[in-house]
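pipeline: protein-struct stage 2 | run 1193 | Glutathione S-transferase
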Amino acid sequence: MHLYIGYQNYSSWSLRPWLAMKVAGIGFEQTLLPFYHSSALKELAAQHEIPAAVPVLEQNGQMIWDSMAIMETLAEQFPDKKLWPENSTLRALARSVAAEMHSGFSALRSQFPMNCRVSCEVEPSEASKKDLARLSVLWRKFNQPEYQAVKESGPFLCGHFSIVDAMYAPVMWRVKGYGLAVSDEFSRWSEAMLALPAMQQWLHDAKQEAWKVEQYDAVAGLS
Protein backbone atom coordinates (compact mmCIF):
# COMPACT_ATOMS: atom_id res chain seq x y z
CA MET A 1 0.00 0.00 0.00
CA HIS A 2 1.47 3.33 -1.09
CA LEU A 3 0.17 6.80 -0.19
CA TYR A 4 1.10 9.79 -2.33
CA ILE A 5 0.86 13.05 -0.41
CA GLY A 6 1.65 16.73 -0.88
CA TYR A 7 3.59 19.13 1.31
CA GLN A 8 3.21 18.15 4.94
CA ASN A 9 3.33 21.78 5.99
CA TYR A 10 0.50 22.85 3.69
CA SER A 11 -1.49 19.91 2.31
CA SER A 12 -4.55 19.56 4.51
CA TRP A 13 -6.11 16.87 2.32
CA SER A 14 -2.94 14.77 2.53
CA LEU A 15 -2.97 14.93 6.32
CA ARG A 16 -6.43 13.41 6.61
CA PRO A 17 -5.90 9.83 5.34
CA TRP A 18 -2.25 9.83 6.47
CA LEU A 19 -3.35 10.50 10.04
CA ALA A 20 -6.19 7.99 9.92
CA MET A 21 -3.85 5.27 8.70
CA LYS A 22 -1.16 6.10 11.25
CA VAL A 23 -3.54 6.17 14.22
CA ALA A 24 -5.23 2.96 13.07
CA GLY A 25 -1.89 1.21 12.62
CA ILE A 26 -2.41 0.49 8.92
CA GLY A 27 1.01 0.09 7.34
CA PHE A 28 1.92 1.99 4.19
CA GLU A 29 4.78 3.53 2.27
CA GLN A 30 4.61 7.17 1.27
CA THR A 31 5.92 9.46 -1.42
CA LEU A 32 5.73 13.24 -1.13
CA LEU A 33 5.01 15.05 -4.40
CA PRO A 34 5.86 18.78 -4.09
CA PHE A 35 3.44 19.86 -6.80
CA TYR A 36 4.46 23.54 -6.88
CA HIS A 37 8.10 22.55 -7.32
CA SER A 38 7.91 19.39 -9.43
CA SER A 39 5.93 17.86 -12.31
CA ALA A 40 5.82 14.42 -10.64
CA LEU A 41 2.16 14.71 -9.59
CA LYS A 42 1.06 15.69 -13.10
CA GLU A 43 3.02 12.77 -14.50
CA LEU A 44 1.44 10.34 -12.04
CA ALA A 45 -2.02 11.68 -12.87
CA ALA A 46 -1.46 11.40 -16.62
CA GLN A 47 -0.13 7.87 -16.28
CA HIS A 48 -3.19 6.65 -14.37
CA GLU A 49 -5.82 9.03 -15.83
CA ILE A 50 -6.72 10.51 -12.45
CA PRO A 51 -6.94 14.12 -11.19
CA ALA A 52 -3.62 15.85 -10.53
CA ALA A 53 -4.36 16.18 -6.83
CA VAL A 54 -3.20 14.60 -3.60
CA PRO A 55 -3.67 12.34 -1.75
CA VAL A 56 -3.72 9.17 -3.83
CA LEU A 57 -3.57 5.64 -2.43
CA GLU A 58 -2.11 2.91 -4.61
CA GLN A 59 -3.26 -0.53 -3.57
CA ASN A 60 -2.74 -3.74 -5.52
CA GLY A 61 -2.29 -1.75 -8.70
CA GLN A 62 -5.45 0.31 -8.21
CA MET A 63 -5.34 4.07 -7.67
CA ILE A 64 -7.80 5.52 -5.15
CA TRP A 65 -8.04 9.30 -5.04
CA ASP A 66 -9.81 11.80 -2.76
CA SER A 67 -9.38 11.73 1.02
CA MET A 68 -12.89 10.51 1.80
CA ALA A 69 -12.75 7.78 -0.85
CA ILE A 70 -9.45 6.56 0.57
CA MET A 71 -10.69 6.49 4.16
CA GLU A 72 -14.03 4.89 3.27
CA THR A 73 -12.15 2.17 1.38
CA LEU A 74 -9.88 1.56 4.37
CA ALA A 75 -12.87 1.44 6.73
CA GLU A 76 -14.34 -1.35 4.60
CA GLN A 77 -11.07 -3.27 4.37
CA PHE A 78 -10.11 -2.93 8.04
CA PRO A 79 -13.36 -3.09 10.05
CA ASP A 80 -11.42 -4.05 13.18
CA LYS A 81 -9.74 -0.62 13.15
CA LYS A 82 -13.08 1.10 13.86
CA LEU A 83 -12.48 3.99 11.49
CA TRP A 84 -16.20 4.66 11.89
CA PRO A 85 -18.00 4.19 15.23
CA GLU A 86 -19.87 0.92 15.61
CA ASN A 87 -23.10 2.51 16.81
CA SER A 88 -25.27 3.37 13.79
CA THR A 89 -26.71 6.57 15.29
CA LEU A 90 -23.29 7.95 16.16
CA ARG A 91 -21.89 6.75 12.83
CA ALA A 92 -24.58 8.65 10.92
CA LEU A 93 -23.70 11.86 12.76
CA ALA A 94 -19.97 11.31 12.20
CA ARG A 95 -20.50 10.71 8.49
CA SER A 96 -22.66 13.81 8.15
CA VAL A 97 -20.13 16.02 9.93
CA ALA A 98 -17.23 14.56 7.94
CA ALA A 99 -19.09 15.22 4.70
CA GLU A 100 -19.81 18.79 5.81
CA MET A 101 -16.08 19.43 6.06
CA HIS A 102 -15.59 17.87 2.65
CA SER A 103 -18.08 20.23 1.02
CA GLY A 104 -18.21 23.24 3.34
CA PHE A 105 -16.22 25.69 5.47
CA SER A 106 -14.94 27.35 2.30
CA ALA A 107 -14.38 30.75 3.91
CA LEU A 108 -12.29 29.37 6.77
CA ARG A 109 -10.26 27.14 4.47
CA SER A 110 -9.70 29.95 1.96
CA GLN A 111 -8.70 32.66 4.42
CA PHE A 112 -6.57 30.39 6.58
CA PRO A 113 -4.56 27.84 4.56
CA MET A 114 -3.06 25.06 6.64
CA ASN A 115 0.46 26.01 7.65
CA CYS A 116 1.96 24.05 10.53
CA ARG A 117 4.79 26.57 10.96
CA VAL A 118 2.66 29.62 11.73
CA SER A 119 1.99 31.10 15.15
CA CYS A 120 0.24 34.45 14.85
CA GLU A 121 -3.09 36.19 15.21
CA VAL A 122 -5.16 37.03 12.14
CA GLU A 123 -8.63 38.58 12.33
CA PRO A 124 -11.19 36.29 10.70
CA SER A 125 -13.55 37.65 8.07
CA GLU A 126 -17.27 37.70 8.77
CA ALA A 127 -17.67 34.59 6.62
CA SER A 128 -14.89 32.81 8.54
CA LYS A 129 -16.53 33.79 11.83
CA LYS A 130 -19.67 32.00 10.67
CA ASP A 131 -17.59 28.90 9.91
CA LEU A 132 -16.00 29.06 13.36
CA ALA A 133 -19.44 29.38 14.94
CA ARG A 134 -20.57 26.36 12.95
CA LEU A 135 -17.67 24.34 14.38
CA SER A 136 -18.86 25.21 17.86
CA VAL A 137 -22.35 23.96 17.00
CA LEU A 138 -21.01 20.67 15.66
CA TRP A 139 -18.79 20.02 18.68
CA ARG A 140 -21.73 20.76 20.97
CA LYS A 141 -23.87 18.32 18.98
CA PHE A 142 -21.47 15.45 19.69
CA ASN A 143 -21.96 16.16 23.39
CA GLN A 144 -25.75 15.94 23.29
CA PRO A 145 -27.17 13.19 25.55
CA GLU A 146 -28.36 10.91 22.75
CA TYR A 147 -24.81 10.73 21.35
CA GLN A 148 -22.97 10.76 24.65
CA ALA A 149 -24.94 7.69 25.68
CA VAL A 150 -23.55 5.60 22.81
CA LYS A 151 -19.98 6.90 22.66
CA GLU A 152 -17.00 4.78 23.54
CA SER A 153 -14.67 6.26 26.13
CA GLY A 154 -12.04 8.62 24.79
CA PRO A 155 -11.36 12.30 24.07
CA PHE A 156 -12.29 12.33 20.39
CA LEU A 157 -15.55 13.29 18.71
CA CYS A 158 -16.94 9.76 18.87
CA GLY A 159 -14.83 8.80 21.88
CA HIS A 160 -12.60 6.49 19.86
CA PHE A 161 -10.56 8.18 17.09
CA SER A 162 -12.37 7.95 13.76
CA ILE A 163 -12.53 9.38 10.26
CA VAL A 164 -14.42 12.46 11.42
CA ASP A 165 -11.45 13.42 13.63
CA ALA A 166 -9.10 12.98 10.68
CA MET A 167 -11.32 15.18 8.52
CA TYR A 168 -11.09 18.06 11.01
CA ALA A 169 -7.41 17.61 11.91
CA PRO A 170 -6.27 20.41 9.56
CA VAL A 171 -8.80 22.75 11.19
CA MET A 172 -6.98 22.21 14.47
CA TRP A 173 -3.78 23.54 12.87
CA ARG A 174 -5.68 26.51 11.41
CA VAL A 175 -7.29 27.47 14.72
CA LYS A 176 -4.06 26.98 16.66
CA GLY A 177 -1.74 28.65 14.15
CA TYR A 178 -3.79 31.76 13.42
CA GLY A 179 -4.95 32.43 16.99
CA LEU A 180 -8.63 31.67 16.37
CA ALA A 181 -11.24 30.70 18.94
CA VAL A 182 -14.04 28.14 18.71
CA SER A 183 -15.21 26.67 22.03
CA ASP A 184 -14.02 24.87 25.15
CA GLU A 185 -15.13 21.55 23.64
CA PHE A 186 -13.08 22.22 20.53
CA SER A 187 -10.03 23.19 22.63
CA ARG A 188 -10.17 19.94 24.61
CA TRP A 189 -10.46 17.94 21.39
CA SER A 190 -7.53 19.88 19.91
CA GLU A 191 -5.35 19.02 22.90
CA ALA A 192 -6.13 15.33 22.43
CA MET A 193 -5.39 15.54 18.70
CA LEU A 194 -2.10 17.35 19.24
CA ALA A 195 -1.06 14.72 21.79
CA LEU A 196 -1.30 11.92 19.21
CA PRO A 197 2.19 10.63 18.33
CA ALA A 198 1.17 10.67 14.66
CA MET A 199 0.31 14.38 14.85
CA GLN A 200 3.63 15.10 16.49
CA GLN A 201 5.38 13.15 13.73
CA TRP A 202 3.50 15.13 11.05
CA LEU A 203 4.41 18.42 12.75
CA HIS A 204 8.07 17.44 12.99
CA ASP A 205 8.21 16.47 9.32
CA ALA A 206 6.34 19.61 8.27
CA LYS A 207 8.83 21.83 10.06
CA GLN A 208 11.73 20.02 8.39
CA GLU A 209 10.46 20.66 4.86
CA ALA A 210 12.62 22.96 2.76
CA TRP A 211 9.87 23.93 0.31
CA LYS A 212 7.99 27.17 0.78
CA VAL A 213 4.77 28.29 -0.90
CA GLU A 214 4.68 32.08 -0.81
CA GLN A 215 0.93 32.59 -1.21
CA TYR A 216 0.31 30.46 1.88
CA ASP A 217 3.11 31.95 3.97
CA ALA A 218 1.97 35.49 3.11
CA VAL A 219 -1.22 35.05 5.15
CA ALA A 220 0.91 34.89 8.30
CA GLY A 221 3.48 37.42 7.10
CA LEU A 222 6.17 34.77 6.58
CA SER A 223 6.96 35.45 2.92
